[in-house]
Amino acid sequence: xxxxxxxxxxxxxxxxxxxxxxxxxxxxxxxxxxxxxxxxxxxxxxxxxxxxxxxxxxxxxxxxxxxxxxxxxxxxxxxxxxxxxxxxxxxxxxxxxxxxxxxxxxxxxxxxxxxxxxxxxxxxxxxxxxxxxxxxxxxxxxxxxxxxxxxxxxxxxxxxxxxxxxxxxxxxxxxxxxxxxxxxxxxxxxxxxxxxxxxxxxxxxxxxxxxxxxxxxxxxxxxxxxxxxxxxxxxxxxxxxxxxxxxxxxxxxxxxxxxxxxxxxx
Length: 266
Prior knowledge:
266 residues; 9 helices; two-stranded parallel ribbon; alpha/beta; 7-stranded parallel sheet; globular; single chain
């Protein structure tokens, strides 16, 4: 099939692109900076040309700006769906977050609104809800670790490797529109503080770990496992510890490869 991936250069989108190409599909990568298919979801610019001849669209777009999230993910979704209908696209796959309608966070409310726009839209659809990425948690710990201090709330998480999540998204893209949701989650559920201890052990970082109390509805939702899935349709196979070990090995290999050749002293 000819499949367009919006946000195809991101953490998940790049893996979805690679997975679908490995399965023999023709993939178009759409993003603001795409050299071949530049698009702007907020205005709809470039969408008509980029979607011409596509059978499926995977929307893995993201917004790092909380203020810009609604414009990109909700208004942008409506622009995208309108362009898909005009282009004759038969299946829209929306990437979302497990528990986005259960945990009171502003960005999650936007994702819930995006899902609603997809369900009410003119194109047959599937929503793939995914738990938090190993990559996201690893980046958060690394950022905090620069200050030699990890403040971690009590929260049940079920993190998944982006490459495992990509397989679930690719599966959804290959199947007929579900007109409903499917869930992908990691292989194990753990408290965020356990994940922090694993990160410290695998990376060898010497940082002080302190609990971060989260009161109110947010704290209750996270402690109750609002971001986990008891019976996901797809369960990843890579644990957080294994992913960390693999990431560390990749970093070491890359660093070794970039070292200048040295002639042994005689």
